[in-house]
Design a protein that fits this description.
Layout (H helix, E strand, L loop, with lengths): L17 H14 L3 H5 L3 H13 L2 H20 L8 E6 L6 H8 L3 E7 L1 H13 L8 E5 L7 H5 L4 E6 L8 H12 L2 E13 L3 H10 L14 E2 L2 H10 L3 E7 H8 L9 E7 L3
Parallel strand pairs: 1-2, 1-4, 2-3, 4-5, 5-6
Antiparallel strand pairs: 5-8, 7-8
Helix pairs in contact: 1-3, 4-11
Length: 277
């Protein structure tokens, strides 16, 4: 199915707080024992992660870890090691170490990380400060997600797998719809998008909000604006916007398939959606 080019004026808006990014980097380094993960953490990130682990319930802490585990599980399912060269795009990568780690582990992949220029600049500084040399099959693209669709960011390249982790959860429903349309333009026919969304979690969300909302006050971000009533509702939105073979399920269901058995706060939906061939 051919996709119409998306006008830049309809571009993706990213609203995540810098403090949120520091917290996530600090929390990730607590369970991911890699030089890349440690390089991404600042002193403030360590402090915020320590506060988070002290204040949050066990199920909330586990959910943060499970999000990385489950989304990586879904990504890797679509990147087989069969000798075919593929392209993986980490969209709105933030201070995640995933791209660099995957590029080092999988020289058969071309790994592209995309974020705003100040984020990419700071990320390069952190890797350089830790004396980490990025592999040749890894590169950054700086792009203003407010004005560019994914095909514009990638140029002649199209992605086999795009991961949008921690991107759509900050958006209201119209912006989620616009964003997934933009992302589809940069995916190869038969390629996949792996994304997370906010489940209409009721009381499950309230505890999470009490822990992290204080670091979102400078962003106009509110996870309550783009909640989905069910995985089926999430799948229907993607199908209505050009995706095929859409699979949506709660993070708890995906975690069980990935072998992650710890108690979770089931406040997220994970989507695995394809571009039609």
């Amino acid at each position: 199915m051919a996709q119409e080019p998306v006008k830049p004026s309809q571009g993706i808006v990213r609203e995540a707080s810098p403090l949120t990014a520091e917290l996530v980097a600090g929390a990730r380094a607590r369970f991911e024992n890699s030089p890349e993960a440690r390089a991404m953490v600042t002193f403030s990130g360590h402090v915020l992660a320590r506060m988070f682990h002290t204040i949050a319930s066990e199920s909330i802490v586990n959910t943060g870890t499970a999000r990385d585990v489950t989304m990586n599980y879904l990504v890797e399912a679509h990147l087989p090691t069969d000798g075919t060269r593929r392209t993986f795009v980490d969209l709105a990568c933030g201070y995640s170490s995933r791209g660099a780690v995957l590029a080092r582990q999988r020289p058969d992949l071309d790994v592209i990380e995309i974020d705003l220029p100040p984020v990419v600049k700071e990320k390069r500084i952190r890797y350089a400060r830790a004396a980490i040399k990025l592999p040749e099959n890894h590169r950054f693209i700086t792009a203003d997600l407010k004005t560019s669709a994914l095909h514009e960011m990638l140029g002649d390249v199209r992605a086999d797998v795009v991961m949008a982790r921690g991107l759509l959860i900050y958006f209201d429903m119209p912006t989620i719809t616009s964003a997934i349309q933009h992302i589809l333009t940069g995916i190869k026919p038969g390629g996949r998008l792996i994304a997370d969304l906010v489940y209409n979690a009721g009381d499950r969300l309230s505890g999470f909000g009490q822990v992290v909302n204080f670091i979102r006050r400078d962003t106009h971000s509110d996870a309550s604006r783009g909640q989905f009533e069910s995985p089926e509702a999430a799948a229907a939105l993607f199908a209505a916007n050009g995706y095929a073979d859409v699979r949506a399920e709660t993070i708890e269901s995906t975690a069980k398939r990935a072998g992650y058995e710890k108690p979770l706060n089931n406040l997220m939906i994970l989507v695995d959606a394809g571009r039609p061939v």
